[in-house]
Specification:
The chain is of the alpha/beta class. The protein is built from 20 helices and 13 strands. Helices cover about 45% and strands about 15% of the residues. It is elongated, with a radius of gyration of 26 Å.
């Protein structure tokens, strides 16, 4: 069990904001106190994932997550611009130099997230408003920077504020954000002992001269405010891409395939042979994955569930090696082809089952030694669906069992486009922006590939959230993704030498962003 003290701000109308001071920047905002507390455990999990993605040391976190309300403040809360925010008891403690540097590091992670979302947006998207009275993304970015200048002014004298802030209203927005954050951090690093320790009641630039401020509250609000608005911008981009798609692209959106699962089933039913042959076109991916299976599988005749295994390339290979393999797939045509290919190879699969990776109810708990999840995760567009598939894999695995899970990386479609459709960025600008910001390639009328492209930094945390312990993560194309044709034409010692090299470097995180597929190998904790 993991225990956190939480602090509440509750507005007169019931709106509630929950803060977790031990996790700087972790908040939940909801219409009621009850709903905010209900959402909090998942927000804490996401916060841990966020820290992990940015390379921070992971905290030991054991389920379930338990929260205890340490303080509740009525009538306070930053629910609208200009509102007074509460000063909680932990905010009153002086902040140390080491704590300042820790907060600044977290602030750099938060700013990196914001900049990655906004830096390449065209003016049309920066200035788009979901509703007539709502903020545009450009206005939100300006608000974030202005708020941070204001936060600093809460605890330092006006004459010591950075001079660059006196005339910054006409700066280009990204230049403004860079200048504001750089100078704010420089000033915060110069805080005196009094500024780090005292409670202040600033009278200038406020509608609430009674509002108390401390350095610790300033650092807390820096992180909370930016992380909240980064999430808001992310949601705005998703809404923009769903509402503003050009008509020539909108015409391709599927009306008959509103269900992505049904669309992907039809895709694979229409071309099962194409999927079988894919491993011949991408020999390196297949060979490196087989090496990983060789090195991390338990000995035969262990029970293997190949969940989403399509026409059974891996199922048949493992059956040849003496494993007890059940092939489970969404596509009945892929299953028929797998049955035929198994007969040709003179091997027997224990079962061929039809269904979806998010529902493995036909299989008992703790019934398989190994689960292969080599396709489903990149066809499940919603995070909750990916987590459900992982939860089902976890359930049917025996304690100590091994998971092999594959995902397609965020930039893989752009590498494909550079090699095969170099005009893609012009012809499909909105789609490209959507993939960059959300990772989602949705269903289209007439069929086609449907995918979620995962950022490499989210892959490990996604799997650990589901109760697995990561063994390794491999970029299975090694060094030759999208430049593999010459290598794939080799045979004999030359081919084996390249397989050796690509498998050897596959676990190097520095190549994962340039890989097409990432393979996670993980264990179900006993």
């Amino acid at each position: 069990m993991t225990h956190y003290l939480v602090f509440l701000e509750v507005a007169d109308g019931g709106l509630c904001m929950v803060h977790v001071p031990d996790l700087p920047g972790c908040t939940v905002r909801a219409p009621t106190r009850e709903e905010a507390l209900r959402q909090l455990p998942e927000a804490i999990r996401r916060y841990h994932d966020w820290r992990c993605r940015h390379g921070e040391a992971t905290f030991a976190m054991e389920e379930p997550i338990q929260v205890e309300i340490a303080e509740a403040s009525a009538g306070f809360g930053p629910f609208n611009p200009g509102d007074a925010a509460a000063l909680f008891e932990p905010d009153r403690r002086a902040i140390t130099t080491e704590e300042i540097e820790y907060h600044l590091r977290l602030m750099s992670h938060s700013r990196a997230d914001l900049v990655a979302l906004a830096r390449d947006l065209p003016d049309a998207i920066l200035d788009w408003q979901p509703e007539a009275e709502s903020f545009s993304i450009r206005r939100l970015l300006r608000h974030i920077g202005n708020a941070e200048e204001w936060y600093v002014s809460r605890i330092v004298s006006t004459e010591t504020l950075p001079p660059e802030w006196k005339d910054d209203e006409n700066m280009p927005i990204m230049d403004f954000l860079e200048m504001e954050r750089r100078t704010a951090l420089a000033r915060l690093r110069q805080l005196t002992e009094a500024e780090r320790s005292n409670v202040f009641y600033p009278q200038q630039w406020t509608q609430h001269p009674e509002e108390p401020w401390t350095a610790r509250k300033v650092f807390r609000r820096f992180l909370e405010h930016e992380r909240e608005h980064t999430d808001q911008i992310r949601r705005m981009l998703e809404l923009y891409h769903s509402k503003q798609m050009p008509q020539d692209q909108e015409a391709h959106l599927s009306t008959e395939h509103d269900d992505p699962i049904e669309a992907i089933r039809q895709l694979y039913d229409q071309q099962p042979t194409h999927e079988w042959e894919r491993m011949e076109r991408h020999r390196t991916e297949f060979a490196v994955t087989l090496r990983a299976l060789r090195d991390h599988l338990p000995p035969p005749p262990a029970r293997v569930l190949d969940c989403g295994g399509g026409p059974g390339r891996y199922s048949i290979e493992l059956a040849k090696r003496g494993y007890d393999v059940t092939l489970f797939d969404l596509s009945t045509e892929c299953l028929r082809l797998a049955e035929s290919k198994a007969t040709e190879a003179n091997v027997k699969l224990s079962a061929l089952e039809h269904g979806t990776a998010t529902n493995l109810a036909r299989f008992a708990d703790n019934s398989f030694d190994v689960v292969l999840l080599m396709g489903p995760l990149y066809h499940l567009l919603e995070e909750r669906e990916r987590l459900q598939a992982l939860a089902e894999a976890h359930r049917v695995l025996k304690p100590g069992g091994t998971l092999f899970a594959a995902l397609i990386t965020r930039y893989a479609p752009f590498r494909y486009a550079a090699a095969n459709e170099p005009d893609y960025l012009i012809q499909h600008q909105e789609e490209g922006e959507r993939i960059l910001s959300t990772g989602v390639l949705p269903p289209r009328k007439g069929g086609g590939f449907i995918a979620y492209f995962a950022h490499p930094a989210e892959v490990g945390p996604l799997v650990t959230r589901s109760g697995f312990e990561i063994v390794t993560i491999l970029g299975v194309e090694g060094l030759v993704g999208r430049i593999e044709d010459g290598v794939n034409a080799l045979s004999g010692p030359a081919w084996e030498a390249w397989v050796d090299l690509n498998y050897r470097v596959a676990a190097d995180p520095s190549i994962h962003g340039g890989a097409e597929h990432l393979l996670v190998i993980a264990l179900k904790l006993r």
